[in-house]
Amino acid sequence: MKSVIQCFMISMVLLSAAAKAQVAEKYEASWPSLEKYQVPDWFRDAKFGIFIHWGVYSVPAYIGEWYPKQMYTQGTKEFKHHVEKYGPQGKFGYKDFIPMFKGEKFDPDQWAELFKKAGAKYVVPVAEHHDGFAMYKTSLSKWNAAEMGPKRDIIGELSKSIRKQNMIFGLSSHRIEHWWFLSGGRKFDSDVNDPKFADFYGPARGEEETMSPEFMNDWLLRSTELVDKYHPQLFWFDWWIEQPALNPYRKSFAAYYYNKAQEWNEGVVINYKYDKAFPEKAAVLDLERGKLDEIRKLPWQTDDAIGNTSWGFTNDNTFKSAQYVITNLIDIVSKNGNLLLNIGPRPDGTITDEETNVLLGTGKWLAINGEAIYGTRPWKIAGEGPTQSAKGPFAEQKTPFNARDIRFTTKGDVLYAIGLGIPSGSTMIKSLGLTIENKTIGKVELLGSTVPVSWKQTKNGLVIQPAGKYPAEYAVAYKITFSEKSR
Fold first, then answer.
1. CA atoms of 278 and 242, how far apart (whole Å)
2. What pTM did the predictor assign?
3. Fewest 10 Å CB contacts: which of 75, 191, 286, 372?
């Protein structure tokens, strides 16, 4: 009997210790605690996601998604255009575009099917942009898509359709920039000054002014509401969350979100842009319209748009090619990064032909070569070749890559060498010469082809002879395995 009691007591002590350990693992609103965060494997494996900028700003469709700010900024093209087309801002303000934002052709299942065909593994719609109009049903503002405009919970519907296609659902919030986004309307006779619309246009303060506790609390409440309602596995923030005054609120949100993820038993990601927002280990770095020129030890992400001049829909946007998207995706992945590629649907909810074609072209390449992208990790070097990579935020790849530019990825013992173009002659990969760690190559295969590859490993490098026909456009992926005797 005594031994039974002892066993029972020991079990209770162990259970108590386990419970305490579990409590101790909870995140606290402090950087030391938040820096224990680990990037989930789903994000590291996914590599490619879709960003969606869709909102009221797609109605004027002029210059860009910052139209609501610029239409109230005297002297801008948008200001002049607005007065000429719609009348003075005191008579026709940004709010008056909302009834025109109908989304009558919005089909979330159709969108999700397209993103799946594009090869995307996660999707991140904008839940609220700087304009202050929420694309979801919120209890904190009547100015939302469920009660106005489309009168549908856009984020809620998308979350279901995205998950139905077995993709990860995320979302973004640009709410914090609303503090100052419409401040230009304070400087002349506009509807921004009308008290009836203060709950939409406000605070409309100066960018140099410190945010009020009320506004920051509202930001925190809106952010946690999105977490609770939609369970996003990625939460993307724009740059202005780095403001010093927001520091305690930012930490509180991260702790809340990471602890919720533990309850869900799902890995989550917070994206931030600059070092002042988060320590590098506490979240995942994102570079807008830019990238890195070397491997980063920690995972990171590029957010870029197919549209060259705007993230949202405009009537005169120009677009990137599938070749640009594919070769830069490969370049980014070789450096331990992900690509979050943006589209800007029309106000009726349809996606442009240009963006659709780029997405389908990307998906076609990934369907053949995805083995060299999904689930991979960086090699000892990102690659080799004559073309210099862009570096940093807002640094697009102005010089196109070519077939002599090679990028490497790995998966287990397999090495993938990807040429960023279709070769017209033999391909020399200098990094794989016999002098490099004395590894002997056992086999070289061309992904998407069953035709044997003609190759030879020399002292100076791996030489691959051109194929009669390549299975995919834009880039060529080789699967390389090493002989047993070289290990």
1. 8
2. 0.94
3. 75
